[in-house]
C-alpha cells in the first residue's frame, strides 16, 4: 500500500481534498476558543453518532482499542473471567480483553461470513463449559474459570450473526460487547424483532474505531463506545477521564482516553458523508461480484448473508497462492492487503494460551487464502475493471499451467 501505486489499496487523500474547506473551518473554530479537549464539538459528535447507530448514548474516546477496553472495564465483569471471541480479527480485539484484566477464549469463524460461528459458540458453551448452579455461573471445565462475556467482531463490515449469539448469551447469562470497529453503519435483520438493527446497537455496548482507514476515519486517532445503558455510558465517561465525574474528584482510577475536540469536529463533518460512502462501497462490492462471475472456482468473493447489509470496510477474496497474486498485481501498481495473515491463536503473543495449529481450521485456512483488493468510496469503475482483469489473468494463467 503506497500512494504512488497506480491503483492504491486505499485512497485517503481524495476525500480529504474534497472536504478540505469544511475541515479547515472546524480547525479555525477550535483555534478561536482553544477548547481542544471536551466541549461542544465532542458533545455534538457523540449526539450525532448515537443517532446514526440508533442508540441512546455514545462516548467518544481515543481509539477503538480504548473503546473496547473501557466497555469491558465499565461492564463490571468478574476479574480474570473468560471472554469468548474469534481468532480471525485484529489483535486490538484481544488486547482489550487482557488489558481489562480478563482472559481470552476463542471459537472459530464461519466459512461464509468470516465472523463468529454461532454453532461453534454454542458447542463451546455447551460441551466445554458447565453451569455451576450454586454460583449461578458458567464455568469452563479445563481452566475452572468463569465465562462472562461474548465479543463478536463484525469483520470487514459484515455483521456477525447476532440473533443466535444473543440467544446463547441470554441462556448462559453472558454479556455481549460488539467489536464494530470495521462496521460503521452495517445492518442486521433480527428475526426476533422483525426489524433491521444497526451495528453497535445490539449488545450491551459496542466499540467503534475512527482510525483513518476505517469507514468513518478521523484525521488521527479516535474511537467511540455506543450503548443504550445510560449509567454504563456515565461510567465510561469517567473511565476515559481519569475516573473523575467532576474535576479532581476521582471516584476511581481511570485513563487518559478522551476524544480530541478537533477530531470530533472533523468526524461530525465526515459523518454527514458516511451513508453515501457506505452506499458507494456496496455498489463497488456488487460490481466486483459481477465482474468475477464465472471465476468462482478460482476466486471466492465475499458472501453477504441474507440477514445483513454489509458496509464493505474491506473487499476480501480467497485464492490459491495469494502471495503470487499480490506480486502479480503489484507489478502493475495495484495495491492489496492481507487481513490478517496470522491467526491470533498462532501469534507469539498468545503462545501462553496453549492453542495449537488445527484448533481453528476455518480461521487457519482462510488466513492462508485471503487477499483484500482495493476498496474505498472513490474507487472508479475503470480502476475496478483493471483490478479484476489482472486477477482473472493471474488465475487463468495458473489454471493453464496446472491444468
Ligand atoms: C481497527 C480495529 C480495532 C482497533 O481500533 P484502533 O482505533 O486502531 O485502536 C479493533 N478491532 C478491529 C476489528 C479493528 O479493525
Task: Name the descriptors.
403 residues, alpha/beta, 9-stranded mixed sheet, 3-stranded antiparallel sheet, 11 helices, binds pyridoxal-5'-phosphate
Kindly describe this structure.
The protein is an alpha/beta fold. 39% of the residues lie in helices and 16% in strands. The chain is built from 11 helices and 16 strands. Strands 1, 2, 3, 4, 5, 6, 7, 10 and 11 form a 9-stranded mixed sheet that branches. A 3-stranded antiparallel sheet has the order 9-8-14, with no helix packed on it. The protein is globular. The two termini are 32 Å apart. The chain binds pyridoxal-5'-phosphate (PLP). Residues 63-65, 89-90, 92-93, 153, 179, 181-182, 209, 211, 223 line the site of pyridoxal-5'-phosphate (PLP).
What distance separates the N and C termini?
32 Å
Structural class: alpha/beta
Strand-residue proportion: 15-25%
What are the secondary-structure elements, in order, as H or E? Answer: HHEHEHEHEEEHEEEEEHEEHEEHHEH
| Dominant shape | globular
Largest sheet: 9 strands, mixed
Q: How many helices?
A: 11
Would you count the extended β strands for me? 16
Each distinct ligand: pyridoxal-5'-phosphate
How large is the radius of gyration?
22 Å
Helix content: 25-40%
Q: Estimate the mean pLDDT confidence.
A: 96
Q: Can you tell me the residue ranges where pLDDT is under 50 for at least 5 consecutive residues?
A: none
